[in-house]
Amino acid sequence: MAVRPLRALAAAGHDIALCVTRPDRRRGRGGAVTPSPVKAAALELGIAVSHSMNDVLGSGVELAVVVAYGRIIPAALLEQVPMVNLHFSLLPRWRGAAPVEWAILAGDDETGVCLMKVEEGLDMGPVYARRVVPISRDIDLASLRDRLVRDGSTLLVESLAGGVAGLPAPVPQ
User: Fold this and answer.
1) On the CB side of 73, how many CA atoms lie within 13 Å of its CA?
2) Residues near 71 by Cβ (< 8 Å), separated by ≥ 6?
3) Which residue intervals of the chain are DSSP H helices?
């Protein structure tokens, strides 16, 4: 889910100093060690890659963008580097690892994507911007995810067009 937002930020001319992702792992029947999709995209774009979130500290970034990271980011790191998270639900409705799935399973009529400030805790920060996406009764998970990633990539690029100072005032959840 992080590849399209990474490519969108690069295409919009943002200087991306580092991509942090999980280590390469064995995949498929042959068990070949392969990089994550976002690592492969970052390398293709000429972006440095790390497997440690702590490497953000030495990268010189003014803002870190988190997409589908799946781990709690330590408060000590958040105190030094501001971060925004592209979250694929309308917070605070669904937090955690499977918000798109939960929206479908709950029979929600709509979901969406939020750009939020990363704070200590799971998806707890205030929201800078959001887009609502209707859920039709015949949509499948892959189609809804694709729509959310597409809309989220646009929301991310639009929200960061003015840099960190151009972010809208965040609204508490």
Assistant:
1) 29
2) 53
3) 3-11, 37-44, 75-80, 99-105, 141-159
CB atoms within 10 A of CB 41: 20
Contact 59, 79 (CB under 8 A): no
Positive/negative CA dihedral, 156, 159, 165, 171: negative
Of 41, 33, 35, 40, the closest CA to residue 4 belongs to 41
- Written as six digits, the tokens of 109 are 């009529």
Place of tokens 């750009």: 115
- Summarize pLDDT for 11-25 with one digit per residue, the tens: 999 999 999 999 998
pTM of the model: 0.92
Q: Are the CB atoms for 22 and 173 separated by under 8 Å?
A: no
Measured distance CA(150)–CA(167) in Å, rounded: 20
Tens of pLDDT, residue by residue over 34-47, are 899 999 999 999 99
